[in-house]
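Protein modeling request. Please complete all fields; requests missing the sequence field cannot be processed.
Requester role: graduate student
Desired output: 3D structure, token encoding
Chains: 1
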Amino acid sequence: MNLGKLARYLRLLGFDCLYCNSYTDDTVAKIADEQWRIVLTRDCNLLQRRIITYGYFVRASLPKIQIKEVLNRFDLYPMLKPLTRCSHCNGQLIETEKQNVEHRLEPLTKQHFHRFLICSECDQIYWHGSHCTRVQRLIEDFSRRGL
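Delivered output (147 residues):
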């Protein structure tokens, strides 16, 4: 069982979170060792590898409970920096002028929105659209301590 949705939620909250569904256990272990990363997994065998210094077995199966479990386990609440990372690739989000992305926008987006963020890695564009109320609610729910 993969943790893709958990990774997206962690990124939404501003955490540097590598995730690729096609990583092998060897690749995960090597990256964790070389980059001093914590491995979050639902695979007990992966955590038994000697090369993995920091790891945690995520017990919950539902992503919204997983995120609360991880935030509580590592007391990450003081480190929340919502909407600073790309939820797709983990890149840093940077404010950009509308004129820099205007040629890539749909007509209604171009007409109604004026503030934009762009991913420094994959070039994904973000703006405060109709989905933002739902995203903000998620962030508020995740930011409250406790399960």
